[in-house]
Amino acid sequence: MNVKYLLLSAALSASLVACSGPKEPTKSESASAPEAAVAVDESPQVELIPRDLIFGNPTYSSVQISPSGSMISYLAPVEGVMNIWVAPADDISAAKPITFDKGRGIRGYGWVAGMEKLLYVQDKGGDENFLLYGVDPTTSEETLFTPFENTRVTFLASNADIPGKQIIGINNRDPRWHDVYELDVSSGELTLLFENTENFGGFSFDNDLKMRFGQKATSIGGFEYYKKAADGWELFLEVPPEDLYTTGLAGFSKDNKTLYLQESKGRDTSALFAMDLATGDKTLIAENERADIGGTWRDVDTGEPYVYSVDYDKTRYFALDQRGKELLAKLDERFGGNFARVSTTRDESVWVVLNSQSNQVATYYTWDVKSNSFNRLFATRPALEDQQLALMTPELINSRDGLTLVSYLTLPVGADADGDGRPEKPLPLVLNVHGGPWARDSYGYRPTPQWLANRGYAVLQVNFRGSTGFGKGFVNAGDLEWGLKMHDDLIDAIDWAIKESITTSDKIAIMGGSYGGYATLAGLTITPDRFACGVDIVGPSNLETLLASIPPYWESFRRVLEKRVGDPNTEEGLALLRAASPLHKVANISKPLLIGQGANDPRVKQAESDQIVAAMQENQIPVTYALFPDEGHGFARPENRLAFYGVAEGFLAHCLGGKFEPIDDDLNGSSLTVPVGASYIQGLSEALEAFTFEKRG
C-alpha cells in the first residue's frame, strides 16, 4: 500500500515522566501541601531547552511527495493545530494549507495511490473512531467518505495501477468486525465487497485488489490464514501462538504469482521467503540471526524486494541485488547510514529521505535518484538545530536468566567528558519503559530522552522480554510474565546502571505510557524500595478489568491477550491476573506517584486510573492525578502535552533533584484537570488557580 497512516502514533506520545512531592510521604501523612524543597542540581551546566521546543507541534512533519512528483505535502500548524500543507515540488516557499482542522489536528494522511488527491483520518477527542476524509490539493475541497457514528475505518489495499480505488474496512454493521468496501475516491461511492460474517480480523489483497486471504484468530491464541476459493474459504497457513509475532503475509509480486511472507517456523528470528503460489515451494530471501527482518524496498515493475532492513541495536539496510547495492552506497555516502525512505514518486525517480541521528533533529531531503542530487527541505524542529542535544548509545544488558536486553542510554550533554559512554559521576536516572508491550524501543532522536537528559537525568530505555523484533524466543519469554520476569528485566537493567556507576540506588524514577504505565505501577507496588518515584500514563491498574473492557474492534485479538497476559476464564488465569494487578497491592506504595489519563481512552479506560487513585485515597497514600477530558490513549493536543510535561518536570525535580522550567503559562489552552493531589507539586495549585481565573475571564 502506497499510503501509510499513523493512526495510533499518539498512543505512546505518552512516554512522559514525573514524580510527586518534595519529600517522600508516609501513609499517615495528611494530604496537605508539604514544604517546598530546593532542587539539587549536580548535572553539567547546559542551557535549558524550553519544553515547547521539544513537545510543542513540530514545524514540519510527515513529508510526502505526490505520485507524479509535482507536489510536496507535509503536516504543519495552522493557528497552533496540525494540518496538511501542499507546495509545488519545485517551490516549497509557495506552500499553503489545504485543511483547517481546529481541534486535535491531523495526524495521519497520505496520497491516493496513482492519483493527485489526499486522504486523511480523524477521530473525536481520542476515541479512536477514525473516519476517512478526502481533500483536493488544488481547491482544498474536503469530502467525508465515511459519515458514520461510532465507526472505525481501516485501510486494506490500494494500487497505483488502479488509481482512485481504495479498499477499506468499516465496522458500522458490527463494531467487532470490519466489512470490506471499495471506495471510488473521485465519486465518493462505497461498494460493499465482503460482509465479514466469517469474523476475519485481517485481509490480504493482491495487485489487482482482489481479496486473496482472510486472517482469523484461533482459540489457542494463534492465527489461521484462509485462502479465497471459488466455493468459500480454504485453510492456507496455520500460525501457532509461538510464531504469532514473527510470521505474516508480506505482499505479492507484480504478477500475483509469488507471495512474500515473513516466517519463523523452525527457526527463531523471522526470515523473508518467496512462495510460488502454484507449487507452494518457498525460497529463502533474507535472514538475520539476531533480529527479525524488518521492512523491504520493492521493485515498482516486478514487486520483488531489492533491499531489506534489520533493527537490532540500530536499523541497518542490506542489498539483495546490484541496484540495491548502488542505491545504499549513495545514501550511505550522503547520510552515513542514518536515513529512512519515507516516500517516493510512482516511478521511484524521486524519493523523500529522512536523515535522523540521536543527537540531531530529523531533516527531510528530496533525492533525484538518476542525477544523485539531494535537496534539503527542512528540519522537523528548526529551533532545535542550534541546541546542544544528547547522544543515545546502545547497551546490551544481561538478564538474570541469560537473555540479552537491547537497551539505550542517553546522558546529559557534558556528563561523559572522556567519551567512554559513562558519566563522570553518578546521575539521577529515569527508567523510561515502552508501551505495547509487544513493541520496542529503537535508536534515534526521541523527544522524551532529550528532555530528560537536558534536565540532568540519565535515561535508560530497555527492551525487556516480550518486546518485538528480536525473534520469537524473546517475545514469547514475556508470556504470562506481567509483573514477573518482565519486571525482573527492568530491575536487572537498573542494577546494571548502578554497577556501571551511571546512577545510585536512591535516585531512580520509573515512568512510561500504556504498558509502561503499568510497569510504573508494578514498580511502585512490587518493588517499592527500588524507585524514588514514578509516573503512570494511561496504564492499567487492574488486568482483570482491562481485559473485560477492551474496545470491540480488538475482538479478534482477545484470545491473544488471554494467552499472553492471563485467561480470566480459568481459575489459574484469573489468579495470575489478580496477582499481577497493582490495584491489589496498592497498600505497598510508599513513594510519590503521578498519574496521567485521557477521559476518552478506548483501550485503557479512565476507570483504570480512577480505581487506583480511589484506593490510594482510601489508604491515605498521596497521589497526583492529571485528567484530560478531551484526550484518549495519550496526549495528542500540544497544549495538553505541554501542560502535562510542565507538571511532570516539577514533579521530577523535587523527586530526583534535576533542573526544571517553571509551569508558568504551560496550562494555557489545555483541558487539564487535577481531581486529586495538586498540592503535592510545587506551583501547580497556583498555576491551576490562575489558569481557572483566566478561563473565567
From TrEMBL:
<keyword id="KW-0378">Hydrolase</keyword>
<dbReference type="InterPro" id="IPR029058">
    <property type="entry name" value="AB_hydrolase_fold"/>
</dbReference>
<dbReference type="GO" id="GO:0006508">
    <property type="term" value="P:proteolysis"/>
</dbReference>
<dbReference type="Pfam" id="PF00326">
    <property type="entry name" value="Peptidase_S9"/>
</dbReference>
<dbReference type="InterPro" id="IPR001375">
    <property type="entry name" value="Peptidase_S9_cat"/>
</dbReference>
<dbReference type="InterPro" id="IPR011042">
    <property type="entry name" value="6-blade_b-propeller_TolB-like"/>
</dbReference>
<feature type="signal peptide">
    <location>
        <begin position="1"/>
        <end position="20"/>
    </location>
</feature>
<feature type="domain" description="Peptidase S9 prolyl oligopeptidase catalytic">
    <location>
        <begin position="447"/>
        <end position="658"/>
    </location>
</feature>
<protein>
    <submittedName>
        <fullName>Peptidase S9</fullName>
    </submittedName>
</protein>
<dbReference type="GO" id="GO:0004252">
    <property type="term" value="F:serine-type endopeptidase activity"/>
</dbReference>
<keyword id="KW-0732">Signal</keyword>
